[in-house]
Design a protein that fits this description.
The complex is a heterodimer of chains A (about 220) and B (about 260). With about 220 residues, chain A is mainly alpha-helical. Helices cover about 80% and strands about 0% of the residues of chain A. The radius of gyration of chain B is 19 Å and the shape is globular. Helix content of chain B is about 40%, strand content about 25%. The two termini of chain B are about 30 Å apart. In chain B, the strands form 2 sheets. Chain B has a 6-stranded mixed β-sheet with strand order 6-7-8-3-9-10, sandwiched between helices. Chain B has a 4-stranded antiparallel β-sheet with strand order 2-1-4-5, covered by helices on one side. Classes of the chains: A mainly alpha (about 220), B alpha/beta (about 260). Chain B: Pfam families: ABC_tran (PF00005). Chain B: Keywords: ATP-binding, Cell membrane, Membrane, Nucleotide-binding, Transport.
């Protein structure tokens, strides 16, 4: 094993790109997921149907195929998106589908009495969601959301298929140029593991913090 | 007490599937009045209370608070109507059997949420009002606790403070002591007695006979969706007009009160 043969700056840069892809997609996907969860529980039937259809498609098809279709398929329709935005768009759509279900589960777990108390005091729907329902829903959904974030960080390796120079792609090229494949992929794996360990720690801290009121 | 009505409800109908829960119920409550609603379970008393706040949407009938009327038979929706319903909810505060405090907020945050989010009071003033109300229900020292740290009686007193913080025309209380141990009921009832003495308008669904007798200005008896009888408490408890009320009270009060009821009848 000769890790010193690996191009450390390139690996670090790949790590940064991976982290950026995962974080940006998670933030955007959370926003999308929240909106879709609301559509899913809405009283308006077309909104509910649209939400179900969206989740069904993006949860029911392989991420790699989605990435390919966005990057190679959309240009045929005249929409040309560079690799990194393509990757972020796909990861957002994909994780949004999963996260919407996590949010929906959290919302449904909030006691009916909370909606009644909020409604009875005349809170607007928006405020009721923002002040009363979401804070409680997120606490319940947090473990599942954390899982999604970690899974998404690893899924970003698929961006290498559309030429995004993220950690996995860096490892591939470092391996092929130095013939140190094993070292390169072990180093890349360590990079993912580090990011995800940090995320797990953050999640645990957040769960403790949000659980304080319930101790 | 003034002549002004805090709330007027006319011709309230409500059905759940095949079950007609309210059959044309009228109820007006004067400002400062304490109305107690009694009746067997399933008689529609909780539904009536929830209809007054429009938490339950009546199928027909009108609810008027402060000159603003919602006609429930008009099926429309839209912004104007939502606004109107909200106005009525703001003026009719609910206290629930299960408290329904917001578990992620401290006691004080629970109490000031309505004043801040709905009444748009400036924060320092809302906090001042909140602290005063917590003092009134005897929980000033718990202001920074979370609800999970409180006893049932304390939770219900916070819920009462939260309702009062809306500065409502009427406070609607749905069996406020039914989830509580006998020991804890007393502290909640004491708070309610105190509110009654201060002239707070209340409609209370309860099975607490001694309490009702003491604080009610009027007792309504509901049975299968109707208001069967409506009396001042003295008459209601000692000389009710209907045999239905008589048998209900006999069941509620147990053996020792029977002679009195028998003598009155």
């Amino acid at each position: 094993m000769d890790f010193l043969a690996l191009p450390l700056p390139a690996l670090l840069q790949g790590l940064a790109v991976t982290f950026f892809l995962g974080l940006a997609s998670f933030v955007l996907g959370s926003g999308l997921g929240a909106v879709v969860a609301l559509a899913r529980i809405s009283a308006v039937l077309p909104l509910r149907l649209a939400a179900v259809a969206y989740v069904s498609v993006f949860r029911g098809t392989p991420l790699l195929i989605q990435i390919m279709l966005v990057y190679f398929g959309l240009p045929q329709l005249g929409v040309r998106i560079p690799p990194i935005p393509s990757a972020i768009l796909t990861f957002t759509l994909y994780s949004g589908a999963y996260l919407s279900e996590n949010f929906r589960g959290g919302i449904l777990a909030v006691d009916k009495g909370q909606w009644e108390a909020a409604n009875s005091m005349g809170l607007t729907y928006r405020r009721m969601l923002g002040r009363i329902i979401f804070p409680q829903a997120i606490r319940t959904a947090l473990p599942a959301i954390g899982n999604r974030f970690i899974a998404l960080m690893k899924d970003t390796s698929l961006a290498s298929a559309i030429t995004v120079v993220e950690l996995t792609r860096v490892a591939e090229s470092a391996g092929s140029s130095s013939f140190r494949y094993v070292e390169a992929f072990v180093a890349a794996a360590a990079g993912y593991w580090l990011i995800n360990t940090a995320l797990s720690l953050g999640q645990a801290a957040l769960e403790r913090r949000m659980g304080r009121a319930y101790a | 007490m003034t002549d002004r009505n805090a709330i007027d409800a006319h011709g309230l109908h409500k059905r759940f599937g095949d079950l007609q829960v309210l059959k044309s119920v009228d109820l007006s409550v004067r400002s400062g009045e304490v109305v107690v609603i009694m009746g067997p379970s399933g008689s529609g008393k909780t539904t009536l209370l929830r209809c007054l706040n429009l938490l339950e949407r009546p199928d027909a009938g009108t609810v008027t608070v402060r000159g603003r009327t919602v006609d429930c038979s008009a099926r429309g929706s839209g912004r104007g109507r939502a606004r109107l319903i909200r106005d009525i909810r703001i003026r009719t505060a609910m206290v629930f059997q299960q408290y329904n405090l917001f578990p992620h907020m401290t006691v004080l945050q629970n109490v000031v949420e309505g004043p801040l989010s709905v009444r748009r009071l400036p924060r320092p003033y809302a906090v001042e009002v909140g602290e005063r109300l917590l003092e009134r229900v005897g929980l000033a020292d718990k202001r920074d606790e979370y609800p999970s740290r409180l006893s049932g009686g304390q939770k219900q007193r916070v819920a009462i403070a939260r309702a009062l913080a809306m500065d409502p025309e009427v406070v609607l209380l749905d069996e406020p002591t039914s989830s509580l141990d006998p020991e804890l009921r007393g502290e909640v009832l004491q708070v309610l007695r105190d509110l009654a003495a201060r002239g707070t308008t209340m409609v209370i669904v309860t099975h607490e006979i001694a309490f009702a007798r003491e604080v009610a200005d009027r007792v309504l008896f509901m049975d299968s969706g109707y208001i069967l009888e409506e009396q001042p408490p003295r008459t209601f408890f000692t000389d009710p007009a209907s045999t239905r009320v008589r048998s209900f009270l006999r069941l509620m009060t147990g053996v020792e009160s029977q002679p009195e009821l028998g003598a009155a009848g």
